[in-house]
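Q: Predict the bound structure with farnesyl diphosphate.
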Amino acid sequence: MIRFNKKKKAADYSGLIDRNNLPKHIGIIMDGNGRWAKKRGLPRSIGHAEGAKAFDKIIDFAGKLGIKVVTCYAFSTENWSRPDDEVAALMSLLLQYLKDGLTKMADKDTKVIIIGDTKGLNEDIKEGIRKIEDSTKDGKSMVLQIALNYGGRQEIISAAQKAAKMAVSGEIKPEDIDDKLLSSLMYNPDVPEPDLIIRPSGEFRLSNFLLWGSAYSELWFSDILWPDFTADDLLKSIYDYQQRSRRFGGI
Ligand code: FPP
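A: Predicted complex:
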């Protein structure tokens, strides 16, 4: 497990991070809601509701800090296999967020984009997505991507299918399919690839999150459960990121 310097208090990180070297794009796997609830003898849905509150606070803080893009993993293509009542609770939280977020995100000048296979979602969620994306489309200060019915492999498959169609129609030759072309066919090619991916809750995997874009992302793990994740933890992750040497395959 990657640990921070224990001698530093959380609050110290605010003064230590270099504001000129912030990660442009941070991906967050919001994991640990279920365990947070279980530890307190509460239903998992309460853990997700607390997770949604942590999400709100972290997005707000990241925006104030000057992070340009944040992508949060809210629901994966694999999450449908959870019990029906848990899926329903998650969908209801998401719907609520899409409604509440409309004016909140527009006021914060934040552009909200949903990435994932949105075709497979309920009509009311699809309507919520259309409204929030439309009302925040001119947001300039930050891009908030919510990964919803998202799978990294599915994102790559969908890009490959688009490229194959272009080749079949004669628009491109098969050998034109390269890194640059595939990148341009991902769900939202307008954002830079994630510099930093955060996964709390003590797990050490990407779980099908941003597989294409994470080729050179710095990964940061911690055993904090997502509902307990604070602005200080975000600062710690950024501090740690800034201590690393990113070589992108070079020396
Ligand atoms: C993983 O924790 C978390 C999820 C599958 C859902 C994440 C959703 C939210 C934080 C709330 C809704 C989001 C928005 C954008 C309003 P887990 O359930 O797998 O936890 P566990 O591993 O402890 O069981």
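A: The first helix runs from residue 13 to 16.
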